[in-house]
Amino acid sequence: MGTAVAIGVASVISMLVILGQNIAAIGRVDMGITAYAQSAPPPGKQFVLQGPDPRYPGGDPSWPAYARILTRALEAKGLVPVTSAPDLIIRVSYRVGDTRTSVSTTTTPTKDGGSTDSTSVSTTNLRTIQIEALDAASAAAGKPTVVWSIRAQSRGTGDNLAKVFPVMVAAMEDYVGATVEQEVKVSKYDSDPEVARLTQP
């Protein structure tokens, strides 16, 4: 194994370990999922992933670890990763935004008959993951056709997507190739075996 390959593998493993540590205490993740699938059979099972590759401007250093998680989820659905001549080009995008801040005040009685007020501030963010499978032949012809797509959104505290990414993907896995016309509410726990399968080194 060459030095560059060894470093790359070590980086992915390190990121997966960090992901595993990050999700250790988040418990349940609630999310809304929508999905679409064309009525025609998919062109095949071989795929390549496209995402914010850190080797290019604007890329995300977390993408290699995220790609590993996504690949495992897609393999569980019978899809096969390849490096060339794919049937499907699976584009992935994700973001954290739509920050909301709420302020609450609690009044506590005191022994002298008075009261004290305490104020707490909480901030939540909307985490979004979008997966879109394109017919590779139509994409090469300049008229990409969407074979299936899945969108998941979850609102929660913190802006670290790594904490919830494997949990959200584990929930999205059930909707590959399915159509969900109205958003469905799904809950997943970080302790679920599907999450463990996606994050193991």
Straight-line N-to-C gap:
18 Å
Strand order of the largest sheet: 3-2-4-5-6-1-7
- Overall body shape: elongated
Measured on Cα atoms, how large is the radius of gyration?
Answer: 20 Å
CATH architecture: 2-Layer Sandwich
Low-confidence stretches: 3-24
Average predicted local confidence, pLDDT: 87
- State which percent range the strand residues make up: 35-45%
The count of DSSP E runs of length 2 or more, i.e. the number of strands, is 7
Number of contiguous helices: 5
CATH topology: Double Stranded RNA Binding Domain
What tags apply to this protein structure?
7 strands, 201 residues, Double Stranded RNA Binding Domain, 5 helices, 27% helix
Structure, described:
- The chain has a single domain, classed as 2-Layer Sandwich (Double Stranded RNA Binding Domain), CATH 3.30.160.
- The longest helix is centred in the N-terminal third of the chain and has 20 residues.
- The chain is 27% helix and 41% strand.
- With 201 residues, it is an alpha/beta fold.
- The chain has a seven-stranded mixed β-sheet.
- The chain contains five helices and seven strands.
- The N terminus is likely disordered.
- Helix 2 packs parallel to helix 4 and helix 4 packs across helix 5.
- Strand 2, helix 2 and strand 3 form a beta-alpha-beta unit.
Give the structure's gist in a few sentences:
By secondary structure, the chain is an alpha/beta fold. It has five helices and seven strands, in the order H-E-E-H-E-E-E-H-E-H-E-H.
